[in-house]
Amino acid sequence: MTLSIRRATLADEAALSHICLVTADAGKSAEALHDHKELPGLVWSVPYLHLPTTWAYVLVDESDAPVGYIVGSTDTRRYEQSAAADWWPIHAAKYPPEEMVKEGDKRVAGLLRNMYTAEEPSVVFSPAHIHINILEEHQRKGWGRKLITTAANHVKGEGLDGMWLGLDMRNTEARKFYERVGFSSFEGAAPHVLGMKFN
């Protein structure tokens, strides 16, 4: 199968949401954890198609269907402010945690009401952050590295010298991948945060 990378569009929203869901449990599917299967995407992928300072690329198959993505913001603090004003409240109103049964839904719905913000050392390292996910059947084939390179080129094109990401500490394979492609811990970074400076 021949894959390729292109800029994401609003038409890719459902695909980004699905990919996020099936990788949201430390790289494995979180489908069983959610009755509201769109919730993970509303936090970790879909906002990057809608808010200021964001960008997104998708890995697509021969039919142009997304099988992976890399999304990010070139200004994390402005992203957080925009989401706090124009994204989290709108979606929080639709998903009251007290009406939910599954703990996964309650947890993500709770984030819509009280979203964490980046720690200052991360923003000092770089204002740019990213999220990346690829469907399991397309992992370990070099596409993750290509998506990271695509993101790095985009961020460099915006005049920045680095980017960072947060990861689930349970996902040890993901950490090994990030370290192989050039991410590492940095001064003041939380244990779950890794950064990359561009050469």
TrEMBL record:
PROSITE patterns listed in its UniProt record: GNAT
Residue ranges of every copy of the N-acetyltransferase domain listed in the record: 55-199
Alphabetized InterPro entries for the sequence: Acyl_CoA_acyltransferase, Glycosyl_Hydrolase_84, GNAT_dom
CDD domains: NAT_SF
Domain of life: Eukaryota
Identification of the protein by name: N-acetyltransferase domain-containing protein
Record organism: Mycena chlorophos (Agaric fungus)
